[in-house]
Specification:
alpha/beta; Rossmann fold; 3-stranded mixed sheet; 13 helices; 12 strands; binds nicotinamide-adenine-dinucleotide; NAD(P)-bd_dom_sf; dTDP-glucose 4,6-dehydratase activity
Length: 353
């Protein structure tokens, strides 16, 4: 059984990846997560406790802890997702973003490099440091065009600039030290287990609570949406078959304005959980725009499709329906996340191993 490190595996995308790897591969997954407000082990509660999933609460910026983990588990590689990930939070308090996304990635790279350098030649060649990043590093598009692997970086928010810096560090560790890295830049994800500060769960939960549905500006900002399990499949493929030093852009080919997304959510909720009177759409409220709000993101995923044969399985309509149904079916997960109850649950159900 080979071992793989996943950082940030208690977060939204990381937990989807851990579930996928445990279901569809025979890897042992060492899940390294600091459990910030965004990390939630309840998202992994359904996993069998058969020793293939090892959870370690640790900060990626803690060099001694990272060194000890590499020495103990001797992994074949790392899929690095741990990050501060919310743009609005980065505007209010950028320090954590610099610390985790830049310093943390640097520390993890150094720990990985030192472990990798100690391996025999064959193991060194098979090692991968897979850095998971965002299309937001490319800045903002007008009405035309797409981001691709060759697009110049032009990040605009504290979040995207910290991710851009980490992407540069990862590529530099490849060019300078020969560390076999791969980088993926993905568009907006949605799906089950997403923390309710992000657009889609925020709108679903506000709607169910009868609260306003806040839409930035005119609601005409465009995002390219990808169902989280499709992202997880792409990550697995790139980790296993991606070429060292290469970058792969991942996207859903599903551009929607924020207003379209909210309208679609309201229509789904009207169908699946009708209000006593009227439509959820009556809760829509336009609010002052986010400072520096990028207008449009869209990915050309042609390279990963041609090179690795990846395409998303879920359409936006089917993925959104599954997502809304999941939030309706899992009120306890939502309650615990919103109340901090899950931290007590972690203490009762999980001990660090
Ligand atoms: P998330 O906020 O849901 O999860 C992040 C996880 O990282 C949490 O479990 C948190 O506890 C952990 N973490 C934070 N700081 C840490 C630290 N210092 N040490 C160890 N663990 C730490 O984020 P997400 O939406 O799942 O995103 C995961 C990754 O994918 C991020 O790197 C993000 O930039 C990238 N990404 C996200 C999207 C998206 O739409 N959500 C799209 C493209 C790329």
């Amino acid at each position: 059984m080979q071992t793989l490190f996943v950082t940030g595996g208690a977060g939204f995308i990381g937990s989807a990846l851990v579930r996928l790897l445990l279901a569809e591969s025979d890897w042992q997954v060492v899940n390294i997560d600091k459990l910030t407000y965004a990390g939630n082990l309840e998202s992994l509660a359904e996993l069998k406790d058969d020793g293939r999933h090892v959870f370690v609460q640790a900060d990626i910026a803690d060099r001694a802890a990272m060194d000890a983990l590499f020495a103990r588990y001797q992994p074949r590689g790392v899929i690095h997702l741990a990050a501060e990930s919310h743009v609005d939070r980065s505007i209010l308090g950028p320090a954590e973003f610099v610390q985790t996304n830049i310093v943390g990635t640097y520390v993890l790279l150094e720990a990985a490099r030192s472990y990798w350098a100690s391996l025999g030649e064959e193991a060194r060649g098979g090692f991968r440091f897979h850095h998971v990043s965002t299309d937001e590093v490319f800045g903002s598009l007008g009405r035309e065009g797409f981001f691709a692997e060759t697009t110049a970086y032009d990040p605009r928010s504290p979040y995207s600039s910290s991710k851009a810096a980490s992407d540069h560090l990862v590529r530099a560790w490849h060019h300078t030290y020969g560390l076999p890295v791969v980088v993926t830049n993905c568009s907006n994800n949605y799906g089950p287990y997403q923390f309710p500060e992000k657009l889609i769960p925020l709108m679903v939960l506000n709607a169910l609570a009868g609260k306003p549905l806040p839409i930035y500006g005119r609601g005409d900002n465009v995002r390219d949406w990808l169902y989280v399990d499709d992202h997880a499949q792409a990550l697995r493929l790139v980790f296993e078959r991606g070429q060292a030093g290469a970058t792969y852009c991942i996207g859903g080919n599903a551009e929607r304005t924020n207003l379209d997304v909210v309208d679609r959510l309201c229509a789904l909720l009207d169908e699946l959980r009708p209000r006593a009177v009227g439509s959820y759409a009556e809760l829509k409220t336009f609010v002052a725009d986010r400072p520096g709000h990028d207008q449009r993101y869209a990915i050309d995923a042609g390279y990963i499709r041609r090179e690795l044969g990846w395409t998303p399985r879920e359409s936006f309509d089917s993925g959104l329906r599954r997502t809304v149904a999941w939030y309706l079916d899992n009120p306890l997960w939502v309650d615990h996340v919103q109340s901090g109850e899950y931290r007590r649950w972690v203490q009762q159900n999980y001990s660090e191993r």
